[in-house]
Amino acid sequence: MSSVAVLTQESFNEHRSGLVAEQAGAAGAGPSGAGDEEALPTYKDAFPPLPEKASSPDGTQEPANAWTSKIRPLKSSVITQVFHVPLEERKYKDINQFGEGDQAKVCVDIMHKTGAHLELSMAKDQGLSIMVSGKLDAVMKARKEIVSRLQTQASATVAIPKEHHRFVIGKNGEKLQELELKTATKIQIPRPDDPSNHIKISGTKEGLEKAKHEILLISAEQDKRAVERVNIDKVYHPFITGAYNKLVGEMMHETGARINVPPPSVNKTEIVITGEKEQVALAVAMIKKIYEEKQKNATTIAVEVKKSQHKYVIGPKGNTLQEILEKTGVSVEIPPPDSSSETVILRGEPDRLGQALTEVYAKANSYTVSSVVAPSWLHRFIIGKKGQNLAKITQQMPKVHIEFTEGEDRITLEGPTKDMQMVQSQMEAIVTDLISRMDYTEIIVDPKFHRHLIGKGGANINRIKDMHKVSVRIPPDNEKSNLIRIEGDPQGVQEASKELLELASRMENERTKDLIIEQRFHRAIIGQKGEKIKDVRDKFPEVIINFPDPSAKSDIVQLRGPRNEVEKCSKFMAKMVADMVENGFSVSVPIFKQFHKNIIGKGGANIKKIREETNTRIDLPAENSNSEMIVITGKKENCEAARVRILAIQKELANITEMEVSIPSKLHNSLIGSKGRFVRSIMEECGGVHIHFPTEGSGIDTVTIRGPAEEVEKAKKQLLSLAEEKQTKSHTVELKAKPEYHKFLIGKGGGNIRKVRDSTGARIIFPTVDDEDQELITVVGTEDAVREAQKELEELIRSLDNVVEDVMTVETKHHRYFVARRGQVLRDIADEYGGVMVSFPRTGTNSDKVTLKGAKDCVEAAKKRMLEIIEDLDAQVTMECVIPQKFHRSIMGPKGSRIQAITRDHNVQIKFPERLDAPGKGPAIAPAVPLAEAAASVQENGEANGEVLVTEEAATPVDPAAHKKCDIIMLSGRKERCEAAVEALKALVPVTTEVEVPFELHRYIIGQKGSGIRKMMDEFEVNIQVPAPELQSDIISITGLANHLDRAKDGLLERVKELTAEQEDRSLRSFKLTITVDPKYHPKIIGRKGAIITNIRTEHDVNIQFPDKNDENQDQITITGYEHKATAAKDAIQAIVDELEEMISEDITLDARVHARIIGARGKGIRRIMDEFKVDLRFPVPGAADPNQVSVTGRPELVDEAIDHLLNLEEEYMADVIENESKMTYMKPPGDRSASSMDDGGRDRGPSKGFVVREAPWQTGTEKAPDMSSSEDFPSFGAPVAATAKASPWGPKRF
User: In angstroms, what is the C-alpha Rg of the chain?
Assistant: First the structure.
């Protein structure tokens, strides 16, 4: 490390004053008064008159004056040039295409590329005139583009000497680019390694001529120039250049040639002269003359000068050598720095060598080098903070250089001999003083603890440094040293050493623990944006918790800190993980797809209730998914509770039984099959029962079957049969058949495939929608059974491949049934019977022949099915079901879903009548009927078919006993099916019941904006009618299906119980009490940002209200809540008040200059003091009567401690303030006079006279000086001024 002495303001002023004194002495010889007067400018020079607008009467122009001569005419930045392309040089000569062919496209492209504007016109001679407007560079670029793209190109070559090529190219090719732009040509210059001297030019004829001319001009100019190289011994170069290069400069000025002398650092003897031939010849003659003279007259002497003193002879940037050369005309030759020689050679006139030698020795001995012994650890204390200590010395002796070398126990001093003794004594005194009162120690601490000693951002080590006023050096990691060095005051060193060793000892007691936590839990522990791990870190602030990087896929979480805290944190996090594992239990519940909507409930009411009450997450499959699994996640016991409730809903809705079958666990995988194919085939065959196998590896043999009783029994038999086959000897074969044959192979209700299975004993599994291979059929069983089944299936498939065509007779009245709804019935037949094609005759042909085409067996089966349908159609009856029209909407259900279910289950058609507003009137559409209802159109099988029943106007009196047409629902189908459908319709008619609920609870049942009552109606699928408020009735009506009413009534009564309990609780919570507290204590009770009062409110669950500004009782605080909690909150506030009343307040005087230091950045310092001593500090506001007065409030003993601490801080900070102020005095010039009132020599110039001119109008005539405050003499721009005949000192007025 080194320190460099700096030139200070004082030393600079001292140096400058010496120079100014000399100048002042020289100037003082002449008379000052006359010179000052003559130096003043004249009025016309300072304020030249403006030119007159009107020309002189004789027509001559007014002579130019100072204003007009300085004003330059403004030039437009946009220029316009016209280029002419002769007919013979035009590229595009087809006149018919002018303005629209390639020529126009080229022009548009040029405009886009250059930004210039082009206008084309055709001359009489069929030449092309192009007007180009734009900025100069844009016009030149456009011109080049026009020439190259619209004009035919020619080429030519021009030969010039090879050495002139570089002048054509110019610096960085700029000259060549300029030439090409100027002449609109392309110029190709041969490469340097090409011996050719021919330059090729391509462009227009005009451009070629211009380019050739310019190139030949450049070459001709270079022919006139000459270059001369003269070899002169290096030792004579200083005589040719002269001191400070003055002589060579004079020669260049005199001859006009350029002379290049190599610098002293370059070991070359060649001097290069360039310029005109005559100039070069003259310069060479002058140089040779000097050289010959010096060679003849100059002699040398050699002297020995210490190597260390050579730099003083050379001087900064060689200035001393130049100075000796200028004074004596002698050149001093110094050996190079890398040479060990100490010989210095002086060369010059013999009579001048003695004087030069004296100068050399004077310069060599003008500086001295010495050293001061000082331990290296003391160096920075000697330098001081920001070099303050050294600055005191260097300000006095600015020419002395003080250098500190890191690791060496000495300080090097270098400077003028006369100053060295004083500087050395001062430095030795500083070193002695520091050694007497400073100390250091080294402690050994394991390097692994170093960064913990330093702390985050150096917090720990900086605190120790500031507290003990010491310097602590902790070695960097790359040194791998365990030595920590502490330097400073002996007591501070001892205390800092003790504290650091204690910290290190405490860290040795630290332990690091690796906690194994599965990576899937890491994000959950950290929380979104890290809020959860922050809570853990706040709970264990001494423990450092490190999670692995997610990409590392590691389960190790590292804890580091004090042993006990690490153990506590480890247990806490282990518990967190255990809770997550417990809450992460998952179970899948198979629920029949048709019951999923019941599990969800209206508006999600059922599923939401189960989730909230069991505290689980319940995920249902998407509507378009074939999955029946509902996944429940949470704690194991909660998942079981949710599972039981969901199964209970299913059981309530259908006749579901559950059976357990014992099958050896080793067979489970084979029974399930690949991707569950075997078990899925059993579930599908047995009416969609659910078969649940235990978890793999659990060793449990129990398999659960759930579903309708009959289907469960059937599934049990098949499962046991399959298990028996697997235990004996199972064989598997795969067959292929087109997917459209599968339904026919399976048969209606699985009849065909059941026959094959019963006859052979083999199980046949067809692919599901999710399987990749839709043609694959798997046969499983014993080898013989599989072979038989395979044979039968192959025969069936072969017969299906045998396509036949058959015809059957279907009466035309039944045609519409088959082709209705875009042929849905025919599509169903095709799907069921191997893709058989059924063709009905076109409408209007009156033909009853229907064609069937497909596999023979499929055609026969389809034919049989169509005959069954026709038989059903012939056997159909029509039946009426009378239900009041007001219930029709409820019976239909949302989007007609209930009616669709009845038509599907009972295979009947249902027609709803048109809705009427009043009896006897024609059909009218009810305005509020949803689309799903039968309103303007009739609903058939739950869907609109467009048939409208038109009622006739009543011409005769209506029988009161007769049913209204709008109440009659028509059913079509077989008699027994229609009767069953009528019963199903009547079961959907809603009924009403009444529940008594106290009137005052009605508004709570309705809820905010009806949300409460809506939720109940959605949950129980009923309509709840609350009486209007003006009726004051307690009766609430519930309307809905009979099986829903009981649940809705129970739910309503349960809600009434909850509301009653809430009313009682509200009454208990409304207990109020008041406490009288002096308003001056209110801010203390509230706390910073309401922290204290919020804590009381939260802890006691009460509401605490402070008085408003305008309240009469400013000392009353109101507490509302449960009586015992309000009393506890009152006691807590009273305890704070009692503590505040014990406090005292004292005023102390602290110098206002240290207030900012005590308060600290953003109040950190004052907050730390208030937290440490539990007191309140109040500093004076700006403009206070006593700016030094500070108030301290708190308990008496704490106030005294805080005051002592503040006074100590004041004493410490005041020392810094005084030191800074003393430094500031050195930075200001002495005295109160400003720099502007001093002349260059530091003398007082007296009061300023302002700006003074000679020969002003008010001095030569009778006019007075213009009045600065007068608006007439100094008018504002645009302000009207009254006309006056009085002449102005500024000349004639023009406004």
Answer: 56
